[in-house]
Prior knowledge:
Layout: E1 7-12, H1 16-27, E2 32-38, H2 42-49, E3 57-58, E4 70-73, H3 80-89, E5 93-96, H4 100-104, H5 107-115, E6 118-120, H6 129-135, E7 140-149, H7 158-162, E8 174-180, H8 181-187, H9 193-201, E9 208-214, E10 221-229, E11 233-240, H10 250-264
Parallel strand pairs: 1-2, 1-4, 2-3, 4-5, 5-6, 7-9
Antiparallel strand pairs: 7-10, 8-9, 10-11
Helix pairs in contact: 1-10, 3-5, 8-9
Amino acid sequence: MVTTAEQRVAIAGLGAIGREIARRLDSGIQGLRLTAVAVNAQAKAREFLATLAVQPEVVAVEDLASHADIVIECAPSHLLSRIAAPALNAGRKVIVLSVGALLLDPALEALAAKHGGQILVPTGALIGLDALTAAAEGTIHSVRMVTRKPVQGLLGAPYLEEHAIDISGITAPMKLFSGSARDAAKGFPANLNVAVALSYAGIGPDRTVLEIWADPALTRNTHRIEVEADSASFSMTIENIPSENPKTGRITALSAIALLRKMAAPLRVGT
């Protein structure tokens, strides 16, 4: 009987997403083992890691690649290059959650191609990426996404600060942005990774059209996507329950965990 050796997994960042992924790996995912983490607040991280059955090493971001076959980025978007570049240079797989940051560093994809690494983007807070990926094998005419979020989940976005937009006291839905996914990723880096993932799956960040609304009546992050293609026309809506971090839905961590399970699964469902 042929057995597959365990792959080593490292996590960069132990916020709400990183901790949930660490817990699931510690509980057991076939073919995978958590071996290392990289964090800024080491004292707080060690307190959390003490709750795990098996203790991973705490290492510098740049050293993750030497401790793992798969590196999961769960950190602030501005750290993506520091996390991903050494791992891709070593031919590792990198699971990227700060998808918007990929637009700002296209050299990462070239680095993966050169050294045999791979960048993996989980479905995250969206549905229908499989259908969109399939449609992209034909001709997609348009992709439009409307995102509505609770006010708390949008506070502090660079776009709001740059345009002096105050949403803290709004009492009705307010449209904040209309434009391309590329521009949205710059203005809302902690909020619109979903839009960039959508654009990579479909017609690119410049042709993917996006609206962003702040809605004080909402308690969930809501995304509606409409696609017109030569193979199908479809629309989809998802309402994501926020995690401990109001900018991120709970399903984001679960999506990364589902991707990890697929890596060694004897049966994989989905494109």
